[in-house]
Specification:
By secondary structure, the chain is mostly helical. The chain has 6 helices and 2 strands. It has a two-stranded antiparallel ribbon. The longest helix is centred in the middle third of the chain and has 24 residues. It is elongated and about 90 Å long. About 5% of the residues have low confidence.
Length: 146
């Protein structure tokens, strides 16, 4: 083997092979571990997402967390409606319902997750392009401006 072929072989071995996907891997299936209420949220989001945001398989866990947090938030707010935001202790002193803290925790988490996923109005405004442009980039087509 001559030195040119050896250097070409070394060069080929040293280069990393990175394959770009031919199209985005859009997420379509709901994780099986979600509760019925979280699944309802998943289905609703999947109907609305194509209009706003491109969610890929990589984002599946984040979207599942969002749906689960939504379900937990609604359960806590329903409990507040039933028991009230303030409870009375056995000694007769008022106390905040634990469901208020739970609802607050999940509302904070929902705001963060919605921002990460592009589901809040402010985060949608910051998105570089609609989903059609993202798809066109993968397919090698010129971007569409809406």
């Amino acid at each position: 083997m001559n030195s040119t072929k050896k250097s070409q072989n070394r060069k080929a071995k040293n280069e990393l092979s990175v394959q770009e996907p031919s199209q985005p891997q859009l997420l379509l299936t709901c994780p099986s571990h979600l509760s019925p209420r979280a699944r309802e949220e998943w289905d609703w989001i999947m109907l609305e997402l194509p209009q706003h945001v491109c969610i890929l398989n990589l984002d599946r866990t984040m979207l599942a967390l969002y749906c689960d947090a939504t379900a937990q938030y609604w359960e806590a707010t329903e409990a507040i409606k039933k028991t009230g935001a303030v409870l009375m202790t056995p000694n007769g002193h008022p106390m905040q319902s634990p469901y208020v803290g739970i609802a607050h925790h999940y509302s904070t988490l929902l705001i963060k997750l919605a921002s990460e996923l592009g589901l809040s109005p402010a985060s949608r405004r910051r998105l570089p392009s609609p989903i059609s442009e993202v798809r066109n980039e993968y397919w090698g087509l010129p971007p569409l401006r809406v």
